[in-house]
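Example protein
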Amino acid sequence: MHQYFEYYSLNFDAKVIAQSDSLRFHPNLDYFEKGKKTIKFPAIVCAVRDTTGKLITLHRTYLTMAGNLAHVKNPRKFMPLPTGLTLIGGAIQLGKPLQFNNSSKNGVEVVHANVIGIAERLETALAVFSATRIPTWSTMDGNMLRKFEVPKGIDTVVIWADRYRWGAGQESANFLENKLKKQGIQVHTRSPIIGIPALAESINWSDVLMHYGQFYFPKFHYLRDFILRKKKESQHLYKEVN
């Protein structure tokens, strides 16, 4: 698992990720194809949780001993859903929300924001956290991104969108942004500013970190100040309207 993360240039604070107990490792996990057990692989095992933190199911990323994706048809798989549960709204909750505070000169708090990032794949979420220090959750795909629900207490979401040639990643991000804004959530969407490579179908923030480094990500202090400024502007607008 560490070799796999090193390949993607992922250098994150494991203690922060451990807070939500959503990422573990299995050294020899069964792999099934068409319902039949075929072989065992090392695997990253992630908990998919609902808005209350309740475990819905597990997601597995199968690896080789060298730390690459396993050479099988589906190296990334969800476990079957227990009866009565649904993936709708769920995510791999990689860390707890981060609280930003802004105080006036006399020390009285005037603005605060409880922030998480959200991205599609596990590697993308961990890349964002590695580069920005903002805990970022994974929905594992664009369809799940559209269905993501924000847990109680979180008022700001940064969506780290993938870029596809046919626009699918941005469409999923826009759909989620519009949905969350209607719920009163502050939303900021970021897409890679780097063009899609000539032979590739897409680019995501994991690709950016691996090939270009963290300097192509917005800095932590910029994101913090930007989020607090936008939160303050929205509070002033709310007061003026009411």
In short: Residues 220-241 form the longest helix (22 residues). The chain is about 30% helix and 30% strand. Helices lie at 2-7, 14-18, 122-132, 142-147, 168-182, 205-212, 220-241. The CA atoms of residues 15 and 191 lie 27 Å apart.
